[in-house]
Amino acid sequence: MNDPRLADCRICGARASILPLYSGLRDRNFAAIEGDFDIFRCGACGSLTASALSKHELRSAYGQYYTHHDGAKTRTLARVRETARMAALHGLLGSGGVTNRIIALLLRLLPSRRASLVRGLRGLEKGAGSQTILDVGAGDGTFVDTLNRLGWDAEGIEVDQTAVERAQKAGRRVSASELRDLSTQGRRYDLITLNHVIEHVDDPCQLLVDCVAVLSEGGSIWCATPNGESYGARVFGPNWVHLDPPRHRVIFTERSLRGCFHQSGLTSDSIPTQAYASPSLELGASLGLVVGASRLGAPWWVLVFSRIAAPLWQWWTARATRRYSELVMTGRLSKRGTE
Questions:
Q1: 301 with 288: CB under 8 angstroms?
Q2: Quick one: average pLDDT of 114-129?
Q3: Which residues in the chain belong to E strands, given as ranges?
Q4: Range with the lowest mean pLDDT among 2-6, 122-126, 173-177, 323-327?
Q5: In the predicted structure, residue 335 carries a pLDDT above the cut 80
Q6: Where does 169-252 show beta strands of DSSP type E?
């Protein structure tokens, strides 16, 4: 393992403010890589940074990643759930038939589920129009496929070749192209989305710069990432599931993410949001790590408790602490400089 000490903060560049936060962490989320990992906090911007990895270690860390597996229990169940999801999305967007609109009305009785669907659209609203959309870190292309089925012109790029192969086998518009390749080709997009991607790279500000290079004038970037100042991060500490060492290279605070946007020439607007996944997942997985289990191997009583306690956890996080488990930020490029 390389010397984990960092010369400076990867976000704001501060040197003297980097201090150890957690040490000796293991990969207990996916058990893909052996070794101990350290987490550091920047006293200037508050962001968390992980100890360095070699290229071989980085490849190994994604060997068992979730984008490589089909999460559906059965093909039939997957089709039923997907049909219901698409009908609900069409209803929310005001498209489709009467059935879809009825489903949209019923969703008002399920505010948490409705909020999850709205969050899943990543800021997109009624009317697909002619917007071109690029999803960076598209995984197996599920989001890209959803947008295209809803009428948008969307494509995705992904560095994980296994995920790309899965996406292409399913007929989804995902490639292994890099942002700089798209820039060289003169490609431009009206909206670029990064859904829990920016925390996986060692130089996230450069990633945003590369995104800006393929953004249309007046275009926008939508970015979601774990919140290093969330209530869950504070309560569970080194056992917070979204630390995910060693895959998460940087955990942002709102201040540090906003700074990264500004460094890249973007405006920044934060959007209050609750967990990007089920609250019971954050609660159950983190509790599982507390009792010494892996993310996927929590005892049954932890899973049952987390299901029961999830509504209270969600309410307390949202209403009492306002420390949400993720940050969602949008930025707009109002004027492109000389290229």
A1: no
A2: 78
A3: 18-25, 37-42, 48-50, 132-136, 153-157, 174-175, 189-195, 215-226, 250-251, 269-271, 326-332
A4: 2-6
A5: no
A6: 174-175, 189-195, 215-226, 250-251
Of the listed ranges 8-17, 79-88, 123-132, the least confidently predicted one is: 123-132
In terms of residues, how long is the chain? Answer: 339
* CA end-to-end distance (rounded Å), the chain: 40
Q: What is the pTM of this model?
A: 0.89
Instruction: Give residue for tokens 């489709």.
Output: 96
- Give the span between the Cα atoms of 238 and 240, in whole angstroms: 6
Identify whether the C-beta of residue 60 lies closer than 8 Å to the C-beta of residue 33: yes
The pair of structure tokens assigned to 94 is: 């005001």
**Better pLDDT: 274 or 92:** 92
**What's the DSSP call for residue 284?**
H
As beta bridge partners, residue 225 has 327
The predicted model gives 133-161 an average pLDDT of: 95
* Listed range (48-62, 128-142, 156-170, 185-199) with the worst mean pLDDT: 48-62
- Return the minimum-mean-pLDDT range out of 23-37, 111-125, 211-225: 111-125
114 backbone dihedrals φ, ψ, rounded to 5°? -65, -40
Closest-CA residue to 124 (of 188, 224, 191): 191
> What is the pLDDT of the chain when averaged over all its residues?
85
Q: Is 153 helix (H, G, I), strand (E, B) or coil?
A: strand
Distance CA 62, CA 72 (A): 20
Q: Is 307 helix (H, G, I), strand (E, B) or coil?
A: helix
- CA–CA distance, 117 with 191 (Å, rounded to integer): 19
Sheet holding 48-50, edge to edge: 18-25, 37-42, 48-50, 250-251
DSSP states along 9-56: -TTT--STTEEEEEEEE---SS--S-S-EEEEEETTT--EEEPP--HH
162, 139 Cβ separation under 8 angstroms: no
What pLDDT does residue 282 have?
85
Question: How crowded is residue 55: how many other Cβ atoms within 10 Å of its Cβ?
Answer: 7
* Cβ atoms of residues 327 and 227 within 8 Å: yes
